[in-house]
């Protein structure tokens, strides 16, 4: 079968299409005929030798990339009870994180990081590492869910988001756009930033209440405060990392929450002052994707609220490298998908 390997830490040249033997189905496994995949910012780092070197999710090449994909079950092991042939499924990001609190062992089960990912025509996963995808979704739509959507879902639900509260999203990538859509479904007020007025206009069409161009307004936290009568927001979806954290902290209301998710600004050595966390009595919560229980709860909410993922562009399997390059360009709004 056709698959992709990351062959070394040498950038996109390390992304090679390979022929691999068909995977073998164990008694508790399902064999998935993969139909679509999606890219996450994390995947851009993997061909360059990893993702800021979290040892627990590091695996030496060659490895199959990507955490996110969806397909049809075409064979099941003798002891499988959760799925049958013909079911439409996606893998969960941490194969061993079913529910409860995340542990070190579970961090070591990240698809396309600690263990082989799903960018192959057929993939074997334990039945415990899969979820059914929303019935109304195409495989392409479902392929956008395992990392970005579950991350956005955990960020909003962990703090118990209430209708009428205000959420701030940074940028218009995969996590932020899912967070915007979920926050609207919760009845929250939403503020979103972007480098592009065109993307902000798109975000408004999706229901964003306040939009801020962070290029035009480098001190965007002042705009956030102005839009909230000087109070600040209840939850910041913090995907920027060290380069935006101080402004995110300034944007949060007293006793509010900063959901610490990403590293888009690079700059891991920058040290924002922790004092405002204390003075504002903030909860700064690290978010690491989510569990299978969270994924399933999110899918129920998606179905009831008829939330449809925003796919910016779709590439063929043989155009995988072009998909990575497009993702790297930052031109996208929402998700970039690969399809068979
Ligand atoms: N902790 C976790 O479990 C977890 C899970 C998923 C993702 N992440 C992290 O979250 C981040 C976002 O991931 P993603 O997959 O959603 O990325 P993505 O789709 O590639 O998002 C890229 C977008 O982020 C925006 N951006 C870039 N620099 C920015 C800045 N300085 N300020 C505000 N926005 C900025 C840009 O939006 P505009 O073009 O609109 O300016 C850019 O298009 C990444 O760092 C990723 O590693 C973490």
UniProtKB/TrEMBL annotation:
Transmembrane segments: none annotated. Its EC number is 1.1.1.1. It comes from the Bacteria. Residues 11-338 form the Enoyl reductase (ER) domain. One of its GO terms (molecular function) is alcohol dehydrogenase (NAD+) activity. The keyword Oxidoreductase applies. It is an enzyme of class 1 (oxidoreductase). Keywords: Oxidoreductase. InterPro entries: ADH-like_C (IPR013149), ADH-like_N (IPR013154), ER (IPR020843), GroES-like_sf (IPR011032), NAD(P)-bd_dom_sf (IPR036291), Zinc_ADH-like (IPR052711). This is Alcohol dehydrogenase. It comes from Stieleria varia.
């Amino acid at each position: 079968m056709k698959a992709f390997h990351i062959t070394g830490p040498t950038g996109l040249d390390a992304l090679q299409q390979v022929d691999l033997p068909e995977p073998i189905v164990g008694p508790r496994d399902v064999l998935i005929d993969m139909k679509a995949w999606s890219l996450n910012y994390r995947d851009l780092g993997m061909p360059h030798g990893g993702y800021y070197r979290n040892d627990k999710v590091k695996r030496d090449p060659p490895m199959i990339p990507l955490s996110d994909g969806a397909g049809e079950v075409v064979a099941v092991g003798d002891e499988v009870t959760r799925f049958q042939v013909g079911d439409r499924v996606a893998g969960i990001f941490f194969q061993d994180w079913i529910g409860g609190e995340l542990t070190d062992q579970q961090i070591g089960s990240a698809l396309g990081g600690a263990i082989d990912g799903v960018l192959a025509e057929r993939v074997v996963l334990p039945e415990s590492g899969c979820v059914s995808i929303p019935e109304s979704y195409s495989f392409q739509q479902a392929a956008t869910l395992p990392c970005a959507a579950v991350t956005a879902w955990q960020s909003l639900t962990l703090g118990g988001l209430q209708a009428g509260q205000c959420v701030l999203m940074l940028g218009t990538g995969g996590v932020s756009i899912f967070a915007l859509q979920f926050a609207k479904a919760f009845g929250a007020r939403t503020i979103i930033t972007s480098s592009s007025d065109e993307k902000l206009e798109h975000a408004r069409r999706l229901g964003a209440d306040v939009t801020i161009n962070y290029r035009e307004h480098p001190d965007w936290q002042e705009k956030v405060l102005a839009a909230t009568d000087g109070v600040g927001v209840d939850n910041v979806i913090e995907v920027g990392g060290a380069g935006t954290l101080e402004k995110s902290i300034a944007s949060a209301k007293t006793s509010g929450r900063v959901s610490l998710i990403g590293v888009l600004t690079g700059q891991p050595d920058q040290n924002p002052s922790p004092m405002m966390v204390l003075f504002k009595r903030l909860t700064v919560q690290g978010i690491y994707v989510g569990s299978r229980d969270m994924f399933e709860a999110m899918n129920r909410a998606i179905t009831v609220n008829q939330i449809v993922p925003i796919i910016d562009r779709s590439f063929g399997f043989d155009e995988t490298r072009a998909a990575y390059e497009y993702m790297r360009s930052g031109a996208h709004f929402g998700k970039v998908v690969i399809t068979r």
